[in-house]
Amino acid sequence: MSTPPPGKAGALVEQVSSNGFCTGCGACESIAGSDTITMRMSRGGWLRPVVLKPPSGQAEAVIADVCPGLKVEHEQITPGHHAVWGPLRQVRAGHATDAELRRQGSSGGGISAIANYLLESDRVSFVAQIAVSGTDPLANELQISRSRDDVLHAAGSRYAPSAPLSRLQDVLALEQPFAFVGKPCDVAALRRYAAHDKRLNTHLVCAISFMCAGIPSIKGTHELLRKLGTSPEQVRAFRYRGDGWPGMARAITNDGQTFETDYNSSWGTVLNRHLQFRCKICPDGTGEFADIVCADAWYGKDGYPDFTEREGRSLILSRTDLGEEIVSQAITRGAIEAEYIPVEEIARMQPYQVNRKQVVWGRRLAARMARGSAPHYVNLGLVRAALSARPVSALRDALGTYRRAKGEPQ
User: Which end of the chain, N or C, is less packed with Cβ atoms under 10 Å?
Assistant: First the structure.
């Protein structure tokens, strides 16, 4: 994609959205200002930018550099860059020592424990992270967490659209040291934006992410609720996971009834069928731009993850020297219990992410052929990963992406 010609300000944002490449991160709203671009729920059930008035040329240029629907790029491939898993310092499996954080978190409470450690050690004044909206039990909002109770409130996966970067200006205006927790695409955009707003280099202490399989439309949640036997209008509280590992999808209605189903049924048969198109050509489901990444350290069964309920366990990757320092100190201070594991174990715990990295080069090419453009992915090791895939399977996958790109609503 290229920057639109003069006089077409705002066209770039609209083009990213109409082509189906928008991740819904909200960076464009913070860059241009909410009076110029605002994030709203689309008819498809995803958060998308709405251009209220033409942004300035400067704002458009920054958006063109930051937007993960246009570009995802490592400046260079550094030593220790794994073909599938990206930059790595250390690989561990473990869990929060705080029993409540471990249970309420989706995968052993790794992110919650690290966030709480950063707060309690005064390394940060707050953690900017997504939590359930205070006005809509199905919606997400950015939460400024300043205590363990705040972190606990945000614990657990939220398989619905979120735009944490739409409030980035509010976060930076606080002028306090903070940690950010977001999706891999959110963190990638945050890193790019740091080149344009030096306040990030001053105040951002740590960027934390998680392995992501994609963002479902809110319509996926609505379908799940109907399958459970209730409706969005009747729900007063809802969680996708947690309160166990992997935990149940659970809805509580206004009249006090509880409806629930297991993770394999909620994610595996409903929610993952509603992913936005950009997620299907995502080059970074593993948070390569973060300092620290956590994920489910699934136990294997017949080559596949075993979703039997048990005590939560987190896969913990430190990607930078800073990330490794923080993880090591969190272990030393007793916030986390963890042990080193071989890099090869990641593939057994997260086989989906291996396949995803192997096929994304072909998927991006197919999307470009079908829609005339595609995001630029640079220094992500995609060709190397593609060469490790089975050629017939990769070709079949690319053809499927081409058909979807032609047929799916954008």
Answer: C
- For residue 335, being part of any structural domain is answered with yes
> What are 265-284's pLDDT values in tens digits?
999 999 999 999 999 999 99
- Smallest CA-to-CA distance from 106 within 267, 253, 237 is with 267
β-partners of residue 144 are 128
Classified as helix, coil or strand, 105 is coil
Q: 396 CB contacts (<8 Å, ≥6 apart)?
A: none
Residue 77 has pLDDT above 90, yes or no: no
Structural domain boundaries, residue 90: 81-215+274-350
**Within 207-350, where are the H helices?**
218-228, 263-269, 277-280, 321-332, 344-349
CATH number of the domain to which 341 belongs: 3.40.640
- In this structure, what token pair is assigned to residue 408? 């799916």
Cα(104)–Cα(347) distance, integer angstroms = 25
| Alpha-carbon span 332 to 279, nearest angstrom | 37
Alpha-carbon distances of 306 from 264, 276, 346, rounded to whole Å: 10, 26, 14
